[in-house]
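TL;DR need structure tokens for one chain.
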Amino acid sequence: MKALDYTALTLVIIGAVNWGLIGFLQFDLVATIFGSQASLISRIVYALVGLAGLYTILLYGKIGSSDTIAMSKQG
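>> reply
TL;DR here they are.
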């Protein structure tokens, strides 16, 4: 599960950097590397980034539960 967490976080970072580039410079890095926004590979990358973003919502639960466990071990 840890590998999936790191993969998801990496994809979210890629998405965040891409959105930052679009917002500040009007430059779509994913489309530049993989073809236009309509190309199949670009659409797959966008979809994976979106799924990774949804998956990372689960990390909030992991963070909260690990904090609770750590605090109960200290107390």
